[in-house]
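job 3f2a | input accepted
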Amino acid sequence: MKRKMKRYLWELRKKAIRRYKVERGVFPRAMIPLTLENAKRFYGRRKDVTVHSFIRKGDFLLPPPKHLPEDHTFSDPRFHFPQKPRDYDAVILDIRNPKFTFQHLHLLDDKNRVIYAPQVRFDELPIEKQVLETCERKLEGTVAYLSNSLSCHYAHWIQLQFTALAAYWETFGKENIDYYYIGEKDPPPHVLDSLEQAGIRREQIVNFPCRADRSLISMMYINHNPPELQSGFEMSLFSYDFIKTTLFKPRPPKPGQSCPKKIYVMRGKVGGRRERNQAEVRAALEPHGFTSMSMEGKTMQEEADLFGNADVIVAVHGAALHNQLFARPGTQVIELFPYDYFEPSNYVIASHSGCEYYYLIGEPLGDTDPDRSFIGLNRADIVVDPSKLLRLLEMAGLTQGF
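job 3f2a | predicted structure (402 res):
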């Protein structure tokens, strides 16, 4: 009788909590930036959480980028050319507590605190203002966190999620992970394509709120104390090798099929970093053998084929240029940046791929006073001086014979 009464009271309590959450709304309490120090501070003494850590060393030199003389320096001290990639710490929490929940693109602990990367602030995350769910659905086995607040973004997916995937498989083995939480109700094609290529079955992909017997979460951050707010993410050689061997291999053109050797990758439908004089840039490049195209609507395999068979690639700084992962050594890459701005992620990937990397800085906009924050400069529109671009083509030996 006492057991039944306890059970009855427990069910009443659960219903009351659920009703409270629906009526009043329960929000995340805080965010725990997942560094090794914080992992030990908040979870190090708990028996239901194991902390794993390792360092990705950037102990190799990068070839200097090539550019026109006037693009040598920037007024902002945050923007510089790294001589070598920075060191990164990687932390993994191995959690055996079903009160941790996956929801709203995040993993929350049993005190409703968001576990996330140290390079962002809690007030920048949409989940800060989202009502938490009860997460009644519980999965048996191990669920690995493979998401972030912008998981649908192509570059974030490759740079961050596949880096985490490499950490999980290296630490625990692919065969010991049952599910992967991606958080998106309708994941974009590149997410499903890449997971399938990595050998992850559809039934292993979790895109709904849930709990699990065992949860894993991995984060990487710059090896500084305190962790530096990043101005870009420089892919480690370990991550590059993993992604290169896991994702798609470029296919040669089929018999009778031509594949452009010089491609100009145009910006698609974007909210920021618009190329204001795109028509002028096309007009300058196409007489020199360039084919203009956008990556919108293409599968990852099709993008791999284009970049893997190209000899020269010109593109505005953006996610599409991450497809340098598929480029052959010796491919010439020209990256176009907004005025007075530089971010090294594509430069580092080009170096890993053995590409010959050039960059060009756009012209001042003149009509606005740009937001000087990193995000503001990163999203600023770009105007390319066609004559300046042609000088860079000449410097790269790409105007001969025309």
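job 3f2a | The chain has a mean pLDDT of 85.
job 3f2a | closed
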